[in-house]
Amino acid sequence: MNYSTHALAAKDSLIRQISMLAEKVDKPFKLYFGESDMTTPEFICRAAYEALQQGHTFYTNTAGYLDLREAIVRKFDEVHGVQFKPTEVVCTAGAVMAIHMAMRSCLDPGDNIILITPTWPVFSSIATLFGAEARAVPLQETADGFSLDLDAVAKAVDGRTKMLIVNSPSNPTGWIISENEQRALWDLALKHDFMIMADEVYDRIVFDRPSAPSFAKIATDKEHLIVINSFSKTYNMTGWRLGYALTGESLAKLMTKLGEFIVSNPSALVQRAGIVALRDGEGYVKEIREKYTRQRQLAMDKLKTISNVTLPTPQGGFYAFPKLDGLHDSLGFAKKLLAESRVGMAPGVAFGAAGEGYMRLCFAASDAVLVPALDRFKEFVEKNLCD
Ligand SMILES: Cc1ncc(COP(=O)(O)O)c(C=O)c1O
C-alpha cells in the first residue's frame, strides 16, 4: 500500500515511546507526560454530569457554544486585558486540534514555519504532515536559563515563511518571552507578512506574576496572530480534550470550516464543564499555582545537589529541564533510567536537536511520586554519568 509520504515523514513522538515502555514497567514513576497526577476538580466534573442531565447531548455550533466563546473572551480580557469577539474564537478538541487546524488553514506544501527550540515536538510533526518545512531556531543558553536569538530568527525567514510559532511559557524549557522580544518578532511578522502562532497553554502557570505576557497584548492587528490556549493544564483537564484559538475573524471562519471535517465540534458536555471552569475556577488556579510553586522548588533543590547537572530556572509551566554534563544520547539514557530505576522522564532530544543533553521532567506530580523519583534520578545520574 502506498501511504501518504507526508504522513509517513511526520516524526513519531519520543515521549510516547517512553510512555509505551513504561507500560511494561512495574509501578513506574511517571514524570514524562505534561500533566499532573491530580484528577479534575469536583466542581468541573459535577458540571459535566449536570450538563448530561440537562440534555447537552447534541451537536453544537462547530466553533463551540456561543456562551463558551463568550466566557473565553471574558476570561481573556480579565487575565490579559485584550478584547476579542466570540466570532474570533474557535473551540476545539484540545489545543492540539486548534494548532492542527490553524496550520492546515495557513500552510501549503513547500511553505515553512519557524520554531523556537527546544520545543514541543507536535508543531513540527503537524507541519510535516502538510508538506511544510519546520525550521528550528535554538534558544541561546545563558548562565541560568535561555534567551532568544532575534538575529537568528530573522535569518531563518524567507519568502515561503508562513508562520512563526512561539510557545511561552515554554515546554520544555520554562522560558518566558519578554514583551520587548514579542514586539521585535511582531515587527518581523508584519514586515514579511507571516502569522505568529502563540501557544500560551501555560499562561496561568507562572510563579512570580499573575500571568505570562500574551502576544495579543502587543499585537497591532488580529490578522497576523493566532493565540492557542487550552483547559488541559490550567484546570487539570487533559483527558477531556478542550482547547481554543483566538484569531482574526477570517481565519476563525476558515478554521471553523475545517473543524467540520475533523470532529464537527468539541463534546457538548465538555464545553458546558469548560464554562463552569472559567466561571468558578479562579480559586483552583490559585491553589494549583501554589502547589506547583512548592513542587518546582522541591525539584530545583534536589536537582541542584547533583554535581554534573545544570538547571535553567523554570519561569513558567511545570517542567524542569536539567542539562546533564556528558549526556549525548538522552533517548538511550531515558530508556535505561526507566528500566533500571523505574523513573520515566522525557529525553531532551524529543524537543529537537537543541534539546540533546537535557532531560525533561514534569514536576506537577504529588510528593509521593516526585520525591522518590528525584532520589532515584540522582542516584542513577551519579552512578552512570559522574566520574
Ligand atoms: C505547548 C503545548 N501546547 C499544547 C499542548 C496540548 O494541549 P491539549 O491537551 O489542549 O491538546 C501541550 C501539551 O503538552 C503543550 O505542551
Structure commentary:
With 387 residues, the protein is α/β, with parallel strands linked by helices. The protein folds into two domains: 5-40 and 283-381, Aspartate Aminotransferase, domain 1; 42-280, Aspartate Aminotransferase, domain 2 (3-Layer(aba) Sandwich), CATH 3.40.640. 41% of the residues lie in helices and 15% in strands. The protein has 13 helices and 16 strands. The protein has helices at residues 5-9, 14-22, 42-53, 66-80, 95-106, 122-129, 150-156, 179-192, 249-259, 268-280, 282-303, 330-341, 367-384; strands at residues 29-30, 89-92, 112-117, 133-138, 140-141, 146-147, 161-167, 195-199, 225-230, 243-247, 309-310, 319-320, 323-324, 343-344, 346-347, 359-362. It has a seven-stranded mixed β-sheet, with helices on both faces. It has a three-stranded antiparallel β-sheet with strand order 12-16-15. The chain has a two-stranded parallel ribbon with strand order 1-14. β5 and β6 form a beta hairpin. α2 (14-22) runs parallel beside α12, α5 (95-106) packs parallel to α6 (122-129) and α5 packs across α9 (249-259). It is globular, with a radius of gyration of 20 Å. The protein starts with a helix and ends with a helix. The mean pLDDT is 96. The structure holds pyridoxal-5'-phosphate. Residues 34, 94-96, 120, 167, 171, 199, 201, 230, 232, 238, 243 line the site of pyridoxal-5'-phosphate.
